[in-house]
From TrEMBL:
GO molecular function: allantoicase activity
Protein's name in the database: Probable allantoicase
Pathway membership, UniProt: Nitrogen metabolism; (S)-allantoin degradation; (S)-ureidoglycolate from allantoate (aminidohydrolase route): step 1/1
NCBIfam families, sorted: allantoicase
Keywords: Hydrolase, Purine metabolism
Top enzyme category: hydrolase
Catalytic activity: allantoate + H2O = (S)-ureidoglycolate + urea
Allantoicase domain segment(s): 20-169, 190-319
Length: 320
């Protein structure tokens, strides 16, 4: 049976290493490294694989506590933003998982050291101490409209967590806007994927991640269509703005790139504006297209024909 996922898991994971996230501090990592918490992809496990610290786990695991207290890890979000939900995944941890967890958050300016973060007294609870289960995706919705830059995972009293997923919407520091070319679709600038026709192989949120894709799995790929329709993705821009350059990147998609693509913009009132007519695409290529439109847009729809995969979409322009 397919596991039913909470709605918030549609949103991007703001803590991912591929977004620039980092586990900056943990009070203990005796058995397995804290950095595994934000690795891309699900945790893996190979039985009877022992290293010098014991059984090798693809996650973060602390020693067995013999004194009062609990263990903690601090994660800097790759993209600061509003957190809608958190997944504390204890995959493969069956006899050594924490029976309870909580999560705090912090917004801080600049680049504080790990020691400064650990000592900071301004952490805000987002998830109260709650029961957790072993070898399970423990899902927690978050009710907060605030912007956060860091989260602190607390496990009680000790144990192992495979992955921490912090789903939400990017909310950038607007002081950096207007000092160079702005990608209005980028997650780190406040863009967001609203919907798509199909996400069989990988999430369309990848399209607006920073940097270039390194493998095919870093992009968005749909199932093979057996009808006359086509696949599409709809984006919310970082803010109302004008687009003057689009980049449609099919890097690493060779036998499964779309045959063509089109871009349509939408004004705040829902009126559609053609940005790029249906245009043929090449496999494994970064295509750049000048956009001749002066309309202020709030959303954009990318259509691909008929199906396939893309690495990235960039929509360069300026906020209105």
């Amino acid at each position: 049976m397919t596991e039913s996922l909470p709605d918030f898991t549609w949103l991007p994971d703001l803590a991912l290493r591929t977004l620039g996230g980092a586990v900056v501090w943990a009070n203990d990592e005796s058995f397995a490294e804290k950095e595994n918490l934000i690795s891309q992809g699900p945790s893996t496990y190979q039985p009877a694989s022992f290293g010098h610290k014991g059984q090798v786990y693809d996650g973060w695991e602390t020693r067995r506590r013999r004194e009062a207290g609990h263990d903690t890890a601090i994660i800097r979000l790759g993209v600061p933003g509003v957190i809608r939900g958190v997944v504390v995944d204890t995959a493969w941890f069956k006899g050594n998982y924490p029976p309870a967890v909580s999560l705090d958050a912090l917004e801080v300016d600049g680049y504080p050291t790990a020691e400064q973060l650990a000592a900071d007294q301004n952490w805000t609870p987002l998830i109260a101490r709650s029961r957790a289960y072993g070898d399970t995706r423990n899902n927690f919705e978050v009710d907060s409209q605030s912007r956060w830059t860091h989260v602190r995972l607390n496990i009680y009293p000790d144990g192992g967590v495979a992955r921490l997923r912090v789903h939400g919407e990017g909310l950038p520091d607007k002081r950096f806007f207007g000092v160079g070319p702005l990608d209005l679709a980028a997650l780190e600038n406040g863009g967001l994927v609203l919907d798509c026709s199909n996400r069989f192989y990988s999430s369309p949120q990848n399209l607006i991640f920073p940097g270039y894709a390194q493998v095919m799995g870093d992009g968005w790929e749909t199932a093979r269509r057996r009808d006359d329709a086509n696949d599409w993705v709809r984006f919310r821009l970082a803010g109302p703005g004008r687009i003057n350059l689009a980049e449609i990147d099919t890097s690493y998609f060779i036998g499964n790139s779309p045959g063509a693509a089109a871009l349509t913009g939408f004004r705040a009132d829902g009126t559609a504006v053609e940005l790029l007519a249906r245009t043929d695409l090449l496999p494994d290529t970064r295509h750049k297209f000048l956009i001749d439109a002066d309309d202020v847009l709030t959303e954009v729809r990318l259509d691909i024909y008929p199906d396939g995969g893309l690495a990235r979409l960039r929509l360069f322009g300026e906020l209105a």
